């Protein structure tokens, strides 16, 4: 008997909608912060990776495209990509790029730098994205953050898509920085809980 789908099985629609909205209006990129804080909150409160396993729309999207539509080679991801060295190294690299984005945002807020209406793909390729900014009542720094954050979200989607094609559909989940962060939080929380029980 086919298992009945739950509401959260359709969260891939949210991820796809987010990318489409950001294409037309960059300020929608701010909505991506939900995907940033909700996984961390679940890990800190519940001590598990329920977001990654159940609610991640991006993971569902890769499963759908790579699995049902057959665009994945369905090969095992290489061992070096599973290693702690790679996962933690990628997390550190991600943090450095993220804080550089925040620094650029601060410079625009402070008036030391002009707003750059570009999306940086894979932290390297600057794509003109001026059509997606129609002005705002707030500082240009608000838009600068949106361009930077959308760059992060689009880059991680492209990386996920590439690893989906080359390996199994959800291979991105193996080295996803958010997944690595929530795993560290869960280990810390459950380790602290174990120590309390032993005491």
> Compute the gyration radius: what is it?
18 Å
- Total domain count: 1
Strand order of the largest sheet: 1-2
Order of helices and strands: HHHHHHEEHHH
- Spatial gap, N to C terminus: 47 Å
Query: What's the tally of helices?
Result: 9
Please describe the topology of this protein.
Blueprint: H1 12-24, H2 33-46, H3 50-55, H4 57-68, H5 79-82, H6 84-109, E1 118-121, E2 125-128, H7 140-166, H8 172-175, H9 177-198
Antiparallel strand pairs: 1-2
Write up this protein.
By secondary structure, the chain is mostly helical. The chain has one domain. The chain contains nine helices and two strands, in the order ααααααββααα. A hairpin with a 3-residue loop joins strand 1 and strand 2. The protein is globular, with a radius of gyration of 18 Å.
Q: Short description, anyone?
A:
By secondary structure, this protein is mainly α. It is 64% helix and 4% strand.
Primary descriptors:
199 residues, mainly alpha, two-stranded antiparallel sheet, 9 helices, 64% helix, globular
């Amino acid at each position: 008997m086919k298992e009945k789908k739950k509401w959260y099985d359709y969260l891939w629609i949210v991820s796809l909608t987010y990318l489409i909205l950001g294409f037309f209006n960059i300020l929608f990129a701010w909505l991506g912060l939900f995907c940033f804080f909700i996984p961390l909150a679940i890990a800190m409160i519940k001590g598990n990776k329920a977001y990654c396993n159940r609610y991640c729309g991006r993971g569902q999207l890769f499963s759908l495209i790579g699995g049902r539509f057959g665009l994945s080679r369905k090969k095992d991801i290489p061992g070096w990509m599973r290693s702690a060295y790679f996962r933690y190294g990628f997390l550190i690299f991600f943090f450095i790029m993220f804080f550089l984005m925040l620094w650029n945002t601060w410079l625009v807020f402070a008036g030391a730098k002009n707003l750059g209406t570009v999306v940086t793909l894979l932290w390297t390729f600057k794509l003109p994205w001026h059509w997606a900014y129609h002005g705002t009542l707030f500082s240009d720094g608000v838009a600068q953050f949106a361009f930077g954050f959308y760059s992060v979200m689009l880059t991680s989607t492209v990386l996920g898509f590439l690893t989906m094609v080359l390996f199994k559909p959800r291979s991105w989940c193996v080295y996803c920085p958010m997944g690595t962060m929530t795993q560290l939080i869960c280990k810390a929380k459950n380790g602290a809980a174990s120590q309390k029980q032993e005491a």
